[in-house]
Amino acid sequence: MGKRGGAIVFRIALWYPDFVTHIFSICTPYTAPSKNFTPLEVIVKSGRLPNFGYQLQLVNGQLENAIQSKEQIRQLLNGLYGGRTATGEPGWDVEHGIYLDRLHRLKDTVLVSKEMLDYYADQYAINGIHGTCGYNKRCF
Description:
The chain is an all-alpha fold. The protein is built from seven helices and two strands, in the order αααααββαα.
C-alpha cells in the first residue's frame, strides 16, 4: 500500500514479483519505467495529471515560507482536513493546492476534533512543515 510512496509501491512489485502477491495504491497512478525524466511541472501543466497540481506548491517553497507559526500550521491542517469558509470555499484542492488567502477564514473541519487538530499543530510546530515539503522536493 502507498500514498506518499505510491510510485515506490509499483516499483517494488516490478523488482520483486516473487515477493509481492497483491498491490494497491491510493491516488498514485502507475507510470511505467522510462529512460527519460519528465518534470512534475510538465506532467501537471500538460493536463496528464492536473490532480497533482498541489504537489507543485509543496516543492516550490511557497508553503514553507508562508506557514511558520503554530496557528498557521493549525489553519493549514484544518484546510487539509476539509475546513471551508462561511461561503463554502475549500481550504485547498488537488489542482491548486492550499489557498493561503483563505486559511484564516476557514470554519473548523468536522472530520477531526479540535483536540486532535491542536495536537497535530503542536507536533508540527516543533520542526515546522519543512520535512513534509522536503519529502516532495526529493521525489520531484
